Amino acid sequence: MTGVTHSATAASEPAAQRRSEASGPSPADACAHLSREGSGIGEHSVLIADRQSDVQIDSERYRVLVCQVLEAEGVPPGSETAVTFVGSDEMARLNETHMGHDGPTDVLAFPLDLVSGAQSPGDRGAGPVLAGDVIVCPAVAASNAPAGTRSRPGHDGSITSEIDVLVVHGVLHLLGMDHAEPDEAAAMRARESEHLHSLWSRP
User: Alpha-carbon distance 197 to 193, whole Å?
Assistant: First the structure.
């Protein structure tokens, strides 16, 4: 994605630029300096890293959110997923290296087992699933948050809501969902909305 284009939800994003963020290889440094944030719901392991200082991140919120999406999508217990929050410079470097685009984008996803075909979400006898890495740039999310207001029922235009969308979007990419074609985009958006409604409707 070019510049600070909102890759997750902007209806105005050019179709040619909306190719899957999930098509690149997993970056070698995506799992560096990760901190384990508990065993996770349903025995999923979610590794959270915060390598930026633009936005304060609630690591527990996103650990729980990732676990709930994985469970709802039928990923077997014991899966491993990494979510890394990075600054604009680091995201620009990753975006150029792995996607061939200039400037920072809001989210990148680097799937492993579930997209490679090594395992399927419902394969509970094949051992731990390495779902992959989700990279989020909160600075770009902050820029896009006001435009995201009401992009989904419950999105209040806050940075938190925008990062919620990006994390769910990235995890669904790890599970093989995409938005390159209109029908794929509609299906992915529907699943995102279901997961976000579950999160945002909590008391």
Answer: 6
What is the rounded CA–CA span in Å between residue 101 and residue 166? 19
Q: CA-based diameter of the chain, in Å?
A: 44
The reported pLDDT for the residue numbered 31 is 36
Of 84, 82, 76, 75, nearest in space to 46 by CA: 82
pTM above 0.85?
no
Alpha-carbon gap, residue 110 to 145, rounded angstroms: 23
Please report which helix (H) or strand (E) contains residue 82, including its range: strand 80-86
- pLDDT at residue 105 above 80? yes
pLDDT, tens only, 142-157: 999 999 888 888 899 9
At 42 the pLDDT is: 54
d(CA 73, CA 194): 11
Of 173, 39, 178, whose CA–CA distance to 111 is shortest? 173
Do residues 177 and 187 touch, judged by C-beta distance below 8 A? Answer: yes
Q: Give the mean pLDDT of the chain.
A: 79
